[in-house]
Structure formats: C-alpha cells, structure tokens
Design a protein that fits this description.
It is a single chain. The chain has three helices and nine strands, in the order H-H-H-E-E-E-E-E-E-E-E-E. The chain is of the alpha+beta class and 147 residues long. It has a single domain, classed as Metal Binding Protein, Guanine Nucleotide Exchange Factor, Chain A (Beta Complex), CATH 2.170.150.20. The strands form two sheets. A six-stranded antiparallel beta sheet has the order 3-4-8-7-6-5. The termini are far apart.
Length: 147
C-alpha cells in the first residue's frame, strides 16, 4: 500500500506534512481496526454498514482521526449509494488528490488536518455545487446541535 505522501503530490510520506501527525502505533491505538483501515490505509467500508449514512439530525460531521470539522449536516443528502454523501465541505476542511487505483481515475478526499482518507468526490451531486462527496462513515464522527 502506498504511503499517504505518494498520493499527495508524489513525495514520500515524510515530505507531505500535516498539522496532526502520529506514528502508526499511535493511530492504531486511537482508531478501531475498521477506522484505521479506511483513514490510514485508504480502505472502504461496506456500503450501508454505517449508521452515519442514515443520520438526519442537525449537527457537524468531524474527522474520526483528528476531530477536524468536515461537513455541516445541512449539506448531507441521500445519494442512494450506501455511504454518507455531502455536496459541500466546510472551508479548508478537506483536500483532494488523484486516485488511480483499481484502473480508475477518481478524486480522493482526505482530511486537511491529518491526511486521513475520507472517500472520493464525484461531479454527479445536487445543486448548488453539483458535487457528491461520498464519504466513509467510519472515517467520521457526528455531533448533533444542541437544541
């Protein structure tokens, strides 16, 4: 598996720095095995397997790796894919890179703060952006707004 750095600008993992960096042992101690696989090894959770896919409350979705706020709930929509989908991230929350794995060209979405893999973005989403940020639910946590 390629290191994060090789996916972000072609450098080694050591050349691509993020505000939050931990050793692999620290990431493994913090994250569940499934979250580690998605966030640190660019895995994908099984479609429909995460409760965040059906989350409908007002609130904020955060990176499970570093607690970076990623998406407001009002940007979430039901894409029918089995993964939580959003049309617009919070400003500066995510970065993208080209993912050429599985003989496809896709745009990977990762956390701008820790580099964790979140999912992919596609250009078949709703207005106003026309984008579908298809995220792995296990890569995020949700905090509902207090009412």
């Amino acid at each position: 598996m390629a290191g994060l750095g090789s996916l972000f600008g072609g450098g080694s993992k050591e050349t691509r720095r993020f505000p939050v960096e931990k050793t692999e042992a620290e990431w493994r101690a913090q994250l569940s095995p499934e979250a580690y696989h998605v966030l640190r090894e660019h895995g994908t959770e099984r479609a429909g397997s995460c409760a965040l896919n059906t989350e409908k409350r007002k609130g904020t979705f955060f990176c499970a790796g570093c607690d970076q706020p990623l998406f407001q709930a009002q940007t979430k929509f039901n894409s029918g894919t089995g993964w939580p989908s959003f049309c617009d991230p919070l400003p500066g929350a995510v970065e993208t890179s080209q993912d050429n794995s599985y003989m496809m060209r896709r745009t990977e979405v990762h956390c701008a703060r820790c580099g964790g893999h979140l999912g992919h973005v596609f250009d078949d989403g709703p207005a106003p952006t026309g984008l579908r940020y298809c995220m792995n639910g296990v890569a995020m946590t949700f905090v509902p707004d207090e009412s």
